[in-house]
Amino acid sequence: MLLGVDVGGTFTDAVLLDDGAVHTAKVPTTPGEESKGVMAAIEAVIAEAAADPADVELFSHGMTVGTNALLEERGARTALIATRGFADLLEIARQDRPSLYHLCAPKPTPLIAPELKFEAAERTGPEGIVEPLAAGEPERLAAALADAGAESVAICLLFSYLDPTHECRLAEFLRERLPDLHVSASHEVLPRFREYERASTTAIDAYLSPLLGRYLGRLTEATAAAGLPAPQVMLSSGGVAPAGEAARAGAWSVLSGPAGGAVGAGLLARLSGDGNALGFDMGGTSCDVCVVEDGAVRRTDSRSIDGRPIQLPTVDVHTVGAGGGSIGWRDQGGALRVGPRSAGAVPGPACYGRGGAEPTVTDANLLLGNLAADSTLAGGVALDAEAAERAVGALAKELGLDPLDTAAGIVRVANQEMVRALRVVTVERGVDPRRFALLPFGGAGPMHAAAIAAELGIDRLLCPRAGGVLSAFGLCASDRRRDTARTVMLSGDDLTAERIAAAVSDLRNSVDGPKSADIERFSARQQRGLAEARAEVVYGMRYAGQAFELPVPGDPDPDPADLIAGFEEAHEDRYGHRDPDGSVVLVDIRLALVIDGPEPRPAAAGDGTLEESSRNVRFDDEWVETPVLRGDPEAGRTAAGPVVFELPEATLVLPPSWSAEVDEFGTITAARSPPEAR
Fold it and tell me: Where in the chain are the domains?
């Protein structure tokens, strides 16, 4: 049995896979005490499966605890130790403006208070130590940290990625002298050049790790008491790691939640499509989008969260504040806006009947007929149409519009936010979205998918049967993964096969990879025949004089000529040209040790026991009597739009000009008719 639990902003989802059978549960998230919602979801799904907790072999967990703590600025009281004269590195940053034409736009609030910035009397340069660490510095800094009441400290000294001698001395001393103090050292977190990004990543790691440690500690205790295995935590890179390891490295799991959905999207794209899809995860609070090519999710080596860079491997997911709980409002100019503020889990949309009074996307969908007033959403939420009418009506009065026009406007504005997000990961990066199928999931995604696909010129949809809990499903399929990277700066005569192979070997030796005992334990439990950890290597390359590098996948023992050819091809693909006379620089090497995870298959399609009805649904400002199919459709079932599929965890709305067919896994594959037939 494989168990996956994903904590979202509104709901906590659980999936239990048992020899091909898929059991699901959805419960409201418990903000501030997320572990309670996790255990409630586990109890619900185990009860639904009539299973014994002791039979669960692997428990994978995705969360938003770190992301929310960073956005809400409620992490640990964190200090910074920098080289003397460089304590203001985080404030100076890159000296660029958050908004090009808004000269007074504020930068993010520093995570480290001025009184918690300390300078170390030392200096390391690119050639080695310039000024030794002064005698008594470790003792002085330890006393200052204790007096300041710091819970955590980030150590980021100049050029420590080349020579970490001073950082090692400080980190070892502080860990011994102040055992309750969390220590994040930049040579351990991110041994790469670019001082600001390295300092920012290390500071975020120190800021989040104590909070995650407490949360994962509580969750581990709760799962042990329930007879469950210790959680494996989804990392931002799309692999899982033991809870203890994730707790010590908070920056690595900032995108834990969205990563599970991206892995699930990749799995479904391989099973029900040609492996090429745009993942579109619309939950209650936000919308996450990603690109799946040849069955694999794109990855990137850096992200910015609320204006703060994190230069660590992550799945390439872009997020906007447009979810089912996103609130519609009137701005100062009288325009209708939607999000990023959300009704969340508490109180939730007005139609949930839990005290919410502001109009949300879910309320608008209810009024437009996309949701049925007499239906019960996943998680046992009964809808209150009158409450939705009151909430949307109040906004309509402010705007001077009809309530139904206001509801339609809310949906259109939310759709445009999500279209913009998909363009960020496709058009703005040279990817033609029309080559892909749109794969909507999350509780709200399938309701909006057809309109968004039409806006982007996409003619295919893949709607998973368990789309409402696909992120939790993806957690069950995740690899064990450890990532690291190092700056090497090789060019000209130094760019040799021997130098590259030696650097890769050093990197592999520096990674405390999955132990053979772990491999044996996972093989025995999952009976999946997991192989020895394999190495995935990506080389960061650029032309001499360029500021940024491009990723070039390669072998651990590559031919430099092949690497250069791969870089020039990537450069031409990205920028439209290559420089035959340009000198190529190998800037850094990224290495991941991976143990392949299980490849679970969704349950077979339903038996076709459907409750058929109809209701009025508004399409393009016209009300259309639309067939409604509630339940699990059987394989081979076809339907022509307009039609509404009310699946157990999500609702798929297809307008006229769309047709649908159900495949063997219960995935609804939909196609839009060509222009001449519309």
Answer: 74-214, 479-595
